[in-house]
Design a protein that fits this description.
By secondary structure, this protein is of the alpha/beta class. The protein is 31% helix and 27% strand. Bound molecules: adenosine-5'-triphosphate. InterPro entries: AAA+_ATPase, ABC_transporter-like_ATP-bd, ABC_transporter-like_CS, Metal_Ion_Import_ABC, P-loop_NTPase.
Length: 266
């Protein structure tokens, strides 16, 4: 088991709990997708799982050991995290940004070694991004940055990836390419935890899904059991059609309510 969450609860300062009693386990090769409406606590939970936030109750265990016992560098060798809307403001080249993923393996006073550069270049190559390795990172499009940042966390050689809405800036083609990359990484034994607003992506890529709402997981399990019209309605408060388009692909189509009227005051 790579990660276990035991009865996790979290509150910002003295406010009410954002979530309570969250439990799950993640093994090698698992792809765990967390769905749920805006503001329900997905990002907050992901930040508890990689040690950025400390839960006010419960424990996060990494390979059986409490996350509190790990240093930041030790966590970085095990977990690669891509936050939502990551920004690198200095004028670094793409290759430099990917090389930053090697930081947990390089002493503060040392420069990256040939091996680190090779690992960074391979990460870019695996994602089909070698052609922009000399470009300035800050000039890239949102989608290009997303893939370069993924190369950076892969250069960390982690066992677990935590991805906060990884497909949010990507066009249709790159969404599917990213899901295929996730499939491949999971086949190679990496575990992946991601949040998403696309139940279709959970169907096509994950083997574990949770729907987060009202401070807890309203359901957790395999996608076919969890992603039901009933659960989607509970989560998002609208009707959603589930359509099977092939043996292993289902899509979710939200339905506009014809009777809904909004009172707009201008
Ligand atoms: N630093 C903070 N201080 C206080 N409250 C916060 C902070 N960050 C987030 N929140 C609140 O915590 C709740 C959960 O936010 P979070 O970003 O975890 O939700 P989310 O499910 O990831 O949302 P989205 O799908 O919109 O990205 C929201 O009500 C948000 O306003």
């Amino acid at each position: 088991m790579i990660m276990e969450a035991e009865n996790l609860s979290f509150a910002y300062e003295d406010n009410n709990n954002i979530f309570e009693d969250i439990n799950f386990t993640i093994d090698k090769g698992d792809v765990f997708c967390i769905l749920g409406p805006n503001g329900t606590g997905k990002t907050t939970l992901l930040k508890c799982l990689n040690g950025i936030y400390t839960p006010n109750n419960g424990n996060v265990l990494i390979e059986g050991k409490n996350i509190k016992e790990f240093s930041y560098t030790e966590i970085s060798k095990i977990i690669g995290y891509i936050p939502q809307g990551h920004v690198v403001t200095f004028p670094f080249s793409v290759l430099d940004v990917v090389l930053m993923g090697r930081a947990p393996y390089i002493n503060l006073t040392d420069s990256p070694k040939e091996k680190d550069i090779k690992i960074a270049e391979t990460a870019l190559k695996n994602l089909g991004m070698s052609y922009i390795k000399d470009r300035e990172y800050s000039t890239l499009s949102g989608g290009e940055r997303q893939l370069v940042f993924l190369a950076r966390v892969l250069a960390q050689e982690p066992d677990l990836l935590i991805l906060d809405e990884p497909t949010s800036h990507l066009d249709f083609g790159n969404q599917i390419r990213l899901l295929e990359i996730i499939d491949k990484l999971s086949e190679m034994g990496l575990a992946i935890i991601m949040s998403s607003h696309f139940p279709d992506h959970a169907f096509s890529t994950s083997n574990k899904v949770a729907i987060m709402k009202n401070k807890s997981f309203i359901d957790f399990g395999n996608p076919n059991d969890v992603i039901t019209q009933d659960n989607l309605k509970k989560a998002y408060g609208i009707d959603i059609n589930l359509i099977e388009i092939s043996d292993n692909q289902k899509i979710c189509v939200p339905i506009k309510s014809p009777n809904q009227s909004l009172d707009f005051d201008f």
